[in-house]
């Protein structure tokens, strides 16, 4: 056990030295590659302004999203009315979508329980 701990410490030390040596180079390269996204001057005020722009842009997109939702709902209602004409492919896609929703629900429950399968800790 002590030898494993020594190996882990040495690997951690090597990784730390690597990051110390090459970290700034990677940082500069990353900033250079993405300089078109950097706002000048990079101040707190500019960040607050961008945050407000994002918030109000998202707020302004709600009517369009609402309209898209109702169009999708009308499409599903139309499919349900004409379910005799439904193709096997469409039914398979709907079944896969339902299965995916259930899988995400199960994953959320597991995460909510603290990554346990048996139950909640009370």
TrEMBL record:
Q: Sorted alphabetically, which keywords does the UniProt record give?
A: ATP synthesis, CF(0), Hydrogen ion transport, Ion transport, Membrane, Mitochondrion, Transport
Q: Does the keyword Membrane apply?
A: yes
Q: Where in the cell is it found?
A: Mitochondrion membrane
Record's family? Belongs to the ATPase g subunit family.
The protein, known as: Mitochondrial ATP synthase subunit G protein
Keyword check for Transport? yes
PANTHER family (UniProt xref): ATP SYNTHASE SUBUNIT
Q: Name one GO cellular component term.
A: proton-transporting ATP synthase complex
Write down the InterPro entries for this protein, in alphabetical order.
Answer: ATP_synth_F0_gsu_mt
> Which parts form a coiled-coil structure per UniProt?
none
Biological process per Gene Ontology, one example term: proton transmembrane transport
